[in-house]
Description:
- With 153 residues, the protein is of the alpha+beta class.
- The chain has 2 domains: 9-76, no CATH class; 80-145, no CATH class.
- 50% of the residues lie in helices and 16% in strands.
Amino acid sequence: MFNFFKRKARVELEDIVSAMAYANKTGDYYYHKPSEEVVLKVNPVFSGFSAMGAYVETDDLAADIKANPKDYIHVPVLGLNENYRIMVGYTETLLDGEEKDHLTQILKSAYPFRAFGRAVGALGLTSDYEKYRLAAIRDIAAEWCRENGLRAR
């Protein structure tokens, strides 16, 4: 029978945003249901790494994920498509002019990611772009939380 009074699991939205925004090859982020926290399973190459303010014990976490897979939800890494859409969205917010034209041309190139970042920096737009990027990732993270039955706080 469905329990209407069962509390939805909660998560700090900013922890999910950070996991999605800054994930790289150091490891994989997971939402741990019992503790309602985001944890990092560190790639063994980076053992002893500190993330999100806490030391992560790779072997123990890896073993727990293997033993209790239903206690964990993998937090996805943003793919090229999502990152590209964020860059396009940011470019569309700019007023018509040289900056917008320059970034639009970069987006049409074969490998726009690194060039876009350099151009944003050279144009003095890094802070504005990072605010836009994090807001876009916040929307993606909020949707991910809804899809996984988590209440973001």
